[in-house]
From TrEMBL:
Keywords: Oxidoreductase
Entry annotated with the keyword Lyase: no
Protein name per the record: Putative dehydrogenase
Domain of life of the native organism: Bacteria
Stated family: Belongs to the Gfo/Idh/MocA family.
Keyword set includes Oxidoreductase: yes
Molecular function GO labels: oxidoreductase activity
InterPro entries listed in its UniProt record: NAD(P)-bd_dom_sf (IPR036291)
Length: 308
């Protein structure tokens, strides 16, 4: 099986390596070397789109026009009209394509996905990390994340929002309180998203600022209390007030491998894994819509200082 990987940044290179590990022939194409006529897709069985958010649609259109399933990195889009255009363009291959919501493969999320969460009345999802510490030889100011209209922390770290609305599908954004930076107009560095729907309320918090990496998930219910620290891999759950420490072994690249294996299975028409919430394109669209709604609802209430 031959797969074109468009975008040679860190995530594109990861997907390329994982495809090779899974036995596919992966062709890594830096976006600047990709020809607009799509001729480099000839002979391919599928496409991985690992470019900046702002340039997803043309590549999806080229793939879908050739009947090629695609794996597109999150977020799918930041714009309501653009998202609708992507949905329309992808319709013929939607059931064989995927969105890169890889946290759905995290063992902690999968544990919760198997639970009955109908008693939960409040949920909180949080992620924070100093963006300047993300990786070596990477500069925020020169990155996709610093661009107005497609950059910013809400889109960059939208896995938490995806997890929230996947576990609790009735949730919709009520408000988004954002902090920006004078040097980067329109780019959010911190967001507090309030959501409600069904019988639960939730908050999703994300920021580019925390000097200590944080990734936490807390649920409150009449039966269950959940305290998960995904970064420290410390998982506590109480049922009727009795606490239990869970063992949920985790290896980060295993999530990416599992997602890519499911993509290859979709291309081949084979059975996918038993993951509870397969991020197949058509099934994952509700989450993509909530992300756009939250992005459009951002209300900047202040700015942060610092050299970014």
């Amino acid at each position: 099986m031959r797969i074109a990987v468009i975008g040679a940044g860190s995530i594109g290179r990861r997907h390329h390596g994982n495809l090779e590990t899974l036995g596919a022939k992966a062709v890594l194409i830096p976006y600047r070397e990709f020809r607009p006529d799509g001729s480099q897709l000839e002979g391919c069985d599928g496409v991985v789109v690992a470019t900046a958010t702002q340039i997803r649609r043309p590549l999806i259109e080229l793939a879908a026009a050739r009947g090629l399933p695609f794996y597109v990195e999150k977020p799918l889009s930041h714009d309501r009209a653009e998202l609708a255009a992507i949905e329309a363009a992808a319709a013929t291959v939607a059931e064989r394509s995927m969105i890169g919501y890889m946290m759905r493969y995290h063992p902690a999320f999968r544990y919760l996905a198997r639970m009955d969460l109908s008693d939960i009345y409040r949920a909180r999802f949080e992620i924070g990390h100093d963006v300047r510490q993300w990786r070596e030889n990477w500069n925020f100011a020169d990155s996709y994340a610093a661009r107005s209209g497609g950059g910013g922390v809400l889109l960059d770290l939208c896995h938490e929002l995806d997890m929230a609305v996947t576990l609790f599908p009735a949730l919709t954004p009520d408000s988004v309180t954002s902090l920006g930076h004078d040097r980067y107009p329109g780019v959010d560095f911190s967001d507090e998203i309030a959501l409600s729907g069904g019988n639960a309320a939730a908050t999703v918090s994300m920021d580019y600022l925390s000097p200590a990496f944080l990734r936490r998930l807390n649920l409150r219910g009449t039966t269950h209390t959940v305290e998960f620290d995904l970064h420290a891999e410390n998982y506590l759950i109480a049922t009727h007030g009795v606490w239990e420490q869970l063992s949920l072994p985790f290896e980060r690249n295993a999530m990416f491998l599992a997602a890519m294996a499911d993509f290859l299975a979709l291309i081949a028409g084979e059975t996918v894994s038993d993951v509870e919430h397969l991020p197949r394109f058509d099934l994952a669209l509700p989450s993509a819509r909530r992300i756009v709604e939250a992005y459009e609802a951002r209300h900047f209430t202040g700015t942060i200082a610092g050299d970014y």
